[in-house]
Amino acid sequence: MRLSLDQQVFSFQPLIAKIANRLQRKLQAQQNRHWDFNLEEGYLDTSRLSRIITNPTNKLSFKKEKNIEFKDTIVTLLIDNSGSMRGRPITVAALCSDILARTMERCSIKTEILGFTTKAWKGGLSREKWINNNKPSNPGRLNDLRHIIYKSADAPWRRSKKNLGLLLREGILKENVDGEALEWAFNRLQIRKEKRRILMIISDGAPVDDSTLSVNPGNYLEKNLRDTVSKIENKSNIDLVAIGIGHDVSRYYKNAVTIMDVDQLGEVLLNELSNIFTTKNKLS
Q1: What's the rounded Cα separation, in Å, for the pair 81 and 85?
Q2: DSSP 8-state code for residue 72
Q3: Whole-number Cα distances in Å, 89 to 117, 129, 183, 237, 264
Q4: If residue 38 lies in a helix (H) or strand (E), which one and from where to where?
């Protein structure tokens, strides 16, 4: 599967690679221009040596690079691994994840790539337990969750590249319980030490799990998602961005983009990241 991913990277929209390089240049340019001058220790400021030549009584001037804000950043990409993502959508998501991980690594930005789905189509052990307990009303979620770490934040891309190939494994793709997956990704970010934390979710539809919805109120999963989004957006300092593939996710998320053609994903993903970094840099 990793070999298949590698083969497709070469033919995957050259525009995406250009945008990734543009983002990298923008971030590195912002990183490299933060210096403190006129210090008594640090790197010798060679631009001021002429003062010593004209007047030997002048002291040497030193400089130090400031703490680079972008190096204190983590980006989490949470990918919907539901059955409706099968085919081109999950393939493009895998390609974009691969490009994103490599681009961010070059800029010294930690990247985590996660996936979410369920273990079964019709409830699995959760539903069996409910049946054995005489089917109590309003049982809550009735399916076993599967949350996948394709690449952890501290693992380099080269060590995780084979894992990213698993995004192409069709047997994984089942149902999607977005709210609890978002909570999981959020909790992983909360314990990180980075000052700037960005969470991007890619989904192609509303949360759906037939086993759960068949015995709970029809808005059960959507309410769970809305409550989770509200908590992250209003009670945390994490930047939350949603990208909907053929589905308007702006009804759930304040910062949302909808694309109708999955091949736009790479361009939109990197542009959204670029906007976040540019905006934050201006504010700082």
Answers
A1: 6
A2: G
A3: 15, 34, 23, 30, 11
A4: strand 35-39
**53 and 90 both lie in a single domain:** no
Residue numbers of the domain that contains 24: 2-28+68-283
Angle between helices 88-106 and 14-32 (to 10 degrees): 30
Assess whether 99 and 138 both reside in one domain. Answer: yes
Phi/psi for 173 (5° steps) reads -75, 110
Q: Can you point out the beta strands (E) in 174-250?
A: 196-203, 239-245
Domain count, the chain: 2
Do 146 and 46 fall within a single domain?
no
Token pair, residue 82, equals: 């539901």
| DSSP, residue by residue, 190-202 | HT---SEEEEEEE
Tell me the C-alpha distance between 127 and 129, whole Å.
5
Q: Residues 152, 170: contact at Cβ < 8 Å?
A: no
Query: Are residue 52 and residue 170 in the same domain, yes or no?
Result: no
Are both 12 and 90 inside the same structural domain?
yes
- pTM value? 0.78
Strand, coil or helix: 177 = coil
CATH number at residue 104: 3.40.50.410
* Same domain assignment for residues 221 and 131: yes
Cβ-contact 166, 42 below 8 angstroms? no
Instruction: Give the pair of three-digit tokens for residue 197.
Output: 């934390």
If you average pLDDT over every residue of the chain, what do you get? Answer: 84
Q: Which residues contact 237 (CB under 8 A, 6 or more apart)?
A: 197
pLDDT tens for each residue of 99-151? 888 888 877 789 999 999 999 888 889 999 999 999 998 898 999 999 999 99
